[in-house]
């Protein structure tokens, strides 16, 4: 494929998960693209929109995932963008069972509908770098070909493996459809509100004792850009999407001006389970695994095929800090001032000692 | 992530990260200039202590603010250079009195695969080898060590290993480092070498499946054999309590003259005399197509093994007394 891909804007696009932050922004962005005729947002009825105003130009349909089949055929849909994924159980919308229902069963039903849709040309599926699992024997950097060595402990990681399995099956049965799987690193940005952004906004941040995971982030705007390009251009295959570069967890916490509190790993896993049982906290074993093993992916395939490089992990994180720095304890300015104070103090003492002698 | 051979921060160097010089007069003025403050006491040019304090404080501030770079493997060159290497250098110079020869065989820039013999119950030889390369080589090269996955299972140890440039011994990581022009260090004997009894000292063990050879072949990297003498005597292993090792899920449980009898004191390595010799590199660029040919891989691994074993014998003749000066 040529870099940048051939441009083939679709006529009718269906976007799932539009009551969520990512889905709403993608749908709004596609609706603003004059090359696309129609954008239809689909969501399950019980979900209340988190984002108002964005979806003015998007036609919205509330149907069960099982009823999407009729919709795809009736409206001559040629592109489906599947974004309806929950990365953590949402206390307002049910527990882990509801999350799995939405992620796994929802995807299965959607792909079954897609398989029967005669006019479908393109399928774009949101996945995650959690697809690589977490193992101590893992290579430091994952390419798209790396197979997971161990099934992850976290629910989201397992869902992602299931979802990618369904997409593989779909590819075999409908080789005529351009199927794009985007493995996103955790989103971060000035406005995005995710599990990780809430974590880094805590004044005192729990970490795992003796572990300093290597992390990568993806700026939310770059995620939109890659999704948009996936819809208007043809990019068949699986792609890692992450900001180049790496931040160690301790480094990220220091840059955010927070204070890390190391916790023993078995204790943290227990605490996570307890918090889950008591019904609050959206942190799960997915996060614990991420913070034990870290996760770094190779994005050279994305750069080659999309001719696009997301802003670096450090730049994306800086953007997040600028928007959230309000409660930081240790800012760079304060540290520099403290450094100057100590240095001046030592110099004065030494100068005084010299004068006396 | 960047493609092979380039570094996104633009500080791609030949043979080492461009770390700010440890002590420089500009370091003293740096925080003041950044902050718009003026020092209450005038800088005293030539005052060594003042500069040391200032650069130490600047280092602390950079660490606390997260103002440093780690690469995709977790390597933190600033921390390695400022903290780990100075500590290891004490061990390397004062305790083990290490002598290095054959450094001209290690390239000043570009990739190289350094293959050594493993010994010593605790794998200090890997750390001493990386100290030798950083301390004695004119290009002050960092050695990127490949470690067993046991190292990366252990908390704290795993992070020290990553921060000093290590990663899991697997072909994807080895090839990625070599394509990036790094100097990679590998010990193909693995635990068979580290955990052998003192009676078998300086007898090279089996070289596994030769995965290191295929990594070198696939990337066309020269293989530099290195013989390390001195490691075997630091914790002479008299016996291996296998049931206890199995219980603790360790590859072996050592009994040395001092461990476990003296408790934590038994962790102090005996002050043996160390000799390290790098051998002439074995070029592999012409064999890139045979990376999957088991015969070529086996022959090359054997050649490396023979070279190291011979060099070990030569070095041992030069060192009649293991604890000599």
Largest sheet geometry of chain A = 7 strands, parallel
Helix and strand run of chain A: EHEEHEHEHEEHEEEHEEHEHHHHH
Give me the CATH superfamily of one domain in chain B.
Glycerol-3-phosphate (1)-acyltransferase
N-to-C span of chain B: 48 Å
Strands of the widest sheet of chain A, in order across it, are 3-2-1-4-5-6-11
CATH class call of one domain in chain B: Alpha Beta
GO molecular function, one term (chain B): acyltransferase activity
Protein name (chain B): Glycerol acyltransferase
Keywords (chain B): Acyltransferase, Transferase
GO cellular component, one term (chain B): membrane
Structure description:
Chain A has 357 residues and is α/β, with parallel strands linked by helices. Chain A contains twelve helices and 13 strands. The longest helix of chain A has 25 residues. Chain A starts with 11 loop residues before the first strand and ends with a helix. The relative contact order of chain A is 0.13. With 325 residues, chain B is of the alpha/beta class. Chain B contains eleven helices and nine strands. In chain B, 43% of the residues are buried. In chain B, 39% of the residues lie in helices and 10% in strands. In chain B, helix 3 crosses helix 4. Chain B is globular, with a radius of gyration of 21 Å. Chain B has a domain of 208 residues: Glycerol-3-phosphate (1)-acyltransferase (3-Layer(aba) Sandwich), CATH 3.40.1130. The N terminus of chain B is likely disordered. Chain B: One of its GO terms (cellular component) is membrane. Chain B: It holds the Pfam family Acyltransferase.
